[in-house]
Design goal:
Blueprint: H1 2-8, E1 21-26, E2 29-35, H2 44-50, E3 62-67, H3 79-85, E4 90-95, H4 105-112, E5 116-119, H5 128-136, E6 140-148, E7 152-154, H6 166-177, E8 181-185, H7 186-192, E9 208-212, E10 233-237, E11 249-253, H8 259-268, E12 273-276, H9 280-288, E13 294-300, E14 309-310, E15 323-331, E16 334-341
Parallel strand pairs: 3-4, 4-5, 6-12, 6-13, 8-9, 8-12, 9-10, 10-11
Antiparallel strand pairs: 1-2, 1-3, 7-14, 13-16, 15-16
Helix pairs in contact: 3-4
The structure holds NADP nicotinamide-adenine-dinucleotide phosphate (NAP).
GO molecular function: 5-amino-6-(5-phosphoribosylamino)uracil reductase activity; diaminohydroxyphosphoribosylaminopyrimidine deaminase activity; NADP binding; zinc ion binding
Active site: 45 (proton donor)
Organism: Companilactobacillus ginsenosidimutans
Length: 343
């Protein structure tokens, strides 16, 4: 199964599909190994069967697959049907699929067709957001910011402050690439004018950009995130747009875009992971709503002092979210702290 997990991790473009790997073994020998390569493409089981020299070799063989094989017609025919047809004798499954369309049905189909099934209940440390999404019916939310040692994310004045160095920047690009949507508040658009794209990496499915504003009609479309670079930008606004929108921009309207509603809307759009990238007010809203599962903060060896902007500040009584897993990494002269929420 460990080889199957290693295979699964090779799938870099699975988007909202899980990463899945499979290995076919017969008489103590690995005959084929493969993975789900790309969203919409063949699943790991089929890719692996296709790698056999002769399909007849599958007869009587064992298959190790990291996730329960699917049993429904989606973008591809059900894997269980193919696994059954070719005569696989036993299937070892990493974990049952948390997606209700599949969950338990794939296992049942295999057993009903006289295939021995063993479930290992091991995630292999992959598909964190996928599993979270189906268990919690919302995306896994990571709040990320760079700050000075006195907890400030910008100096005074309406300009962007570059806080951390090159290594932290590169790491933040990787973090973006691991999320399906990136959310920012309106002031961050105006002050930082970020592009919110993943640099230095080719991505088949880059994260969509989401910005929350009061009134879309007051938003200037000259900012970088509204440029038509092939990546979608979704604006959550309290008003309908009276103007023609740039080609890649969509507006979703409701009169109270609270974090719960933002997250609910993204969940309906199958977004399994959300990166909240500032600013201070928007982060405060998410903390107040208790909607923070992970924090990634990059801390620079600097003090800003004065009235510079704290990382999380809103007009609320303070609340508390406790985190249990902490990882600290040194990145150049900066520190990265990663926190995972206590269960
Ligand atoms: N160091 C870092 O990592 C980092 C990252 C990002 C940003 N920043 C800094 O953070 C600063 C911006 O932070 P900020 O706290 O001033 O602003 P912000 O959080 O970016 O945006 C807040 C504004 O967005 C709109 N908004 C937020 N939530 C909303 C909701 N639920 N419904 C409707 N509108 C909503 C509101 O606009 P209105 O009040 O206009 O209605 C609100 O004032 C900038 O200086 C930027 O440089 C730093």
């Amino acid at each position: 199964m460990n080889i199957a997990f290693q295979e699964a991790k090779k799938g870099k473009s699975t988007w909202t599909n899980p990463q899945v790997g499979a290995v076919i073994v017969k008489d103590g020998k690995i005959l084929a190994q493969g993975h789900h390569e790309k969203f919409g493409g063949p699943h790991a089981e089929v890719n692996t069967l296709n790698k056999l020299e002769y399909i007849s070799d599958a007869k009587g063989a064992d298959m190790y697959v990291t996730l329960e094989p699917c049993s429904h017609f989606g973008k591809t025919p059900p894997c269980v049907q193919r696994v059954t047809e070719v005569g696989i004798k036993r299937v070892f499954i990493g974990m049952q699929d948390p997606n209700p369309i599949v969950s338990g049905n794939g296992i049942k189909y295999l057993k009903d067709h006289n295939i021995e099934v063993e479930v290992c209940n091991d995630t292999g440390d992959i598909n964190e957001a996928y599993i979270f999404y189906y268990q919690n019916k919302r995306p896994l939310i990571t709040v990320k910011y760079a700050m000075s040692v006195d907890g400030k994310i910008n100096k005074t004045g309406h300009h962007r402050t570059i806080i951390t160095g090159e290594e932290a920047y590169e790491d933040a690009q990787k973090l973006r690439s691991e999320n399906q949507a990136i959310l920012i508040g309106e002031h961050t658009v105006i002050i930082d004018n970020p592009q919110l794209t993943v640099r230095n990496r080719e991505m088949d499915f880059p994260p969509i950009r989401v910005v929350v504003v009061r009134d879309v009609n007051t938003v200037e479309f000259g900012y970088k995130i509204f440029q038509n670079d092939g990546i979608k930008t979704l604006i959550f606004s309290q008003t309908k747009s009276r103007r023609r929108l740039p080609e890649n921009v969509e507006v979703a309207v409701r009169d109270d875009w609270t974090p719960d509603k933002i997250v609910e809307e993204l969940a309906q759009r199958n977004i399994e992971s959300l990166l909240v990238e500032g600013g201070s007010k928007l982060q405060a809203e998410f903390v107040h709503a208790g909607l923070v599962d992970k924090v990634v903060t990059y801390i620079a060896p600097k003090l800003f002092g004065g009235a510079s902007l704290p990382a999380v500040q809103g007009d609320y009584r303070s609340s508390e979210i406790d985190f249990e897993e902490t990882e600290i990494t040194k990145l150049g002269s900066d520190l990265k702290i990663e926190l995972r929420r206590s269960k």
